[in-house]
Design a protein that fits this description.
Elements lengths: L8 E6 L6 H15 L3 E6 L13 E4 L4 E2 L7 E2 L8 H18 L3 E5 L9 H12 L6 E7 L10 H12 L2 E5 L21 E3 L17 E4 L7 H10 L9 E4 L6 H10 L4 E4 L5 H6 L3 E4 L3 H10 L3 E3 L9 H11 L4 E2 L7 H12 L13 H22 L1
Parallel strand pairs: 1-2, 1-6, 2-3, 6-7, 7-8, 8-9, 10-11, 10-13, 11-12, 13-14, 14-15
Antiparallel strand pairs: 4-5
Length: about 400
């Protein structure tokens, strides 16, 4: 009798520091891997987010850390206290123990070494442990389609050196016809043979919404979204053709800001912290107003909803602006820059966005979660074939 082959084991590390985009994308990918027959362990190290990673995913939570502000500088624990060396040592020990316990065939590290330098204190020991494993797993990094431009010289070269030394594959969760890695990472040509495009990790096609609103305003995780939500509230009285508004503050918006927004909401305006059916709401809306984060844009594209994008641009952030401008060139969005927000400019931008043609067929690959599963299956099978051929 031939023994049944066990499911390939995947060890997936993701660290979100400010918003919820990283864990949302990783959760979508993890669910697709499980559906494809992989045995997935998702390791997270950020503040817990309700609903993520979701049912059916084995989940290991490291003691949570976050950034102290939007500058992504200092790390703090769940109480807001700066993390010290003892805290870092404890997390590293937990991560290494989880890795050895999982005995994975594939390791996916989200963002690093292209980002998440703040947690290299635990990721470099993890990569060392992987390299010294008796049976070394395949090692991959998982990237969104557009990277943040680097200000410090030498960082790109350091990233390339780490990829060449430790990583077999660079998974880019994007459509190369929309944007390629070299567009925001100039040295990509040096690792071109390791780069694989999965498609954009969008949600499943939305269902008909239970509730319907003309305009859905969302702030992602919400940590830096109060200005956007407030500007929409300021503009609402001037938009006569909009009768119903849904404001989603995000789970990380400070309670004082949520209370202030709720107090200002008048007739026809409903305020929510979080909506699990966000993508469904977009499918029934005339317009989405949001930042230009990866996951929100994927939700908008899948729902085929008109959009007004206000890209997050504080502290030199460039990623959302690059995404928004590309979508605007395709006629898929109206863009308002964050530093240009005023009640009048917001009202003008909303009216212009409402006048956009309703999106029809969108010629972008939005099946990136299943695409990632297919790619991992192929790479794993190729590696197993090579092992058996030795």
């Amino acid at each position: 009798m031939i023994a049944k082959k066990s499911a390939p084991r995947v060890f997936f590390y993701v660290q979100h520091l400010l918003g919820i985009g990283h864990i949302a994308r990783a959760s979508r990918i993890a669910r697709a891997l499980v559906a494809d027959g992989f045995d997935v362990t998702l390791v997270t190290g950020g503040t817990p987010v309700p609903g993520f990673p979701g049912e059916g995913i084995r989940h290991i939570e490291l003691p949570p850390i976050a950034v102290s502000d939007g500058n992504f500088a200092g790390l703090v624990d769940a109480t807001g206290k700066p993390v010290d060396d003892a805290f870092k040592d404890d997390r590293t020990s937990m991560l290494l123990g989880a890795y050895h316990g999982a005995r994975p065939d594939i390791v996916i590290i989200e963002a690093f070494p292209f980002g998440r330098r703040q947690v290299r204190f635990e990721l470099m020991p993890l990569l060392s442990a992987i390299d010294h494993s008796l049976e070394r797993p395949l090692v991959m990094t998982s990237l969104r389609d557009i990277l943040q431009e680097r200000a410090k010289p030498g960082r790109d070269e350091e990233t390339i050196a780490l990829v060449k030394k430790h990583f077999d594959t660079v998974l880019v969760h994007g459509d190369p016809d929309f944007v390629r890695l070299e567009d925001t990472f100039p040295l990509a040509h040096q690792i071109s043979q390791r780069i694989v495009y999965t498609g954009l990790v969008a949600p499943a096609r939305p269902e008909a919404p239970r509730d319907r609103f003309d305009v859905v305003v969302s702030a992602g995780g919400g940590a830096v979204g109060a200005k956007l939500i407030g500007a929409a509230l300021d503009a609402a009285p001037a938009i006569d053709r909009v009768k119903s508004w849904c404001l989603i503050t995000g789970p990380n918006m400070p309670q004082a800001d949520v209370d202030a927004i709720s107090a200002r909401a008048g007739n026809g305006i409903e305020v929510f912290r979080f909506r699990k059916d966000f993508a469904n709401l977009l499918s029934g809306a005339r317009l989405s107003i949001s930042q230009a984060g990866y996951n929100t844009v994927c939700d908008i594209l899948q729902a085929k909803c008109r959009s007004l994008l206000i890209p997050f641009a504080a502290s030199g952030e460039t990623e959302q602006g690059a995404r928004a401008s590309r979508l605007a060139k395709l006629g898929l969005a109206q863009v308002l820059e964050e530093d240009a927000i005023s009640p009048q400019s917001m009202a003008d931008a909303i009216n212009a966005a409402l006048d956009l043609p309703e999106p029809g067929h969108i010629d972008l690959d939005l099946d990136g979660a299943a695409g990632t599963a297919r790619i991992l299956r192929q790479l794993y099978d190729e590696r197993e074939h090579d092992r058996l051929s030795v």
